[in-house]
Amino acid sequence: LRKGIAPLAIALIAMLVLVGVEGVILVNFVYRMEFSIRAAKEASIVEKINEVEFVKRGLDKALIYSFHQASYFIASKGGYSDFDGVPSYNCIPYWRNYATTNYPTNFLENIEDNSIKDLNSYAEALSNDITVPEYEKVERVLPQKIKNIEDAIKCSYYRCTKGCESSEVKNIEGCSEFCKGAEKICGEDAKNYPVEFSGPGTISKEGLKEINLQCIAPFDPSYTFTWPTISTYVNILLVNRSVVTNYGEEETCNIGSASFEAYKVLEISGDNLQLYSDSVTITIIPYILYVTAEGTTVNYPGGPYYDVVIGATASDKLKFASETLEIKDNVNMSKRIKTNILKLFDRGRENFVAQDKTGDAIEDAVSTHDCDDFKEDVTSSINSKISNLQTSLNGQYSAENINFDLKADDIQFDSSCNSTVAVRVLTKMKDTENKYPVYDYGAKTTKQRNIQLRFYVLSGNYIIQPTASKCE
Amino acid sequence: MKGVAPLIGIPLVGVIVLVGTVLMLILPAIFLRMHLIQVVGYVYEYDNSQLYLLVLLSKTYNDKPIYTQIADNLQTGNPDITFVRGELERIVGDRCFNLTTSTRIIAQSDCTPSKYTVNAEIVLPYKPDSLVETLTLVVD
Question: What is the pTM (predicted TM-score) of this model?
Answer without folding.
Answer: 0.69
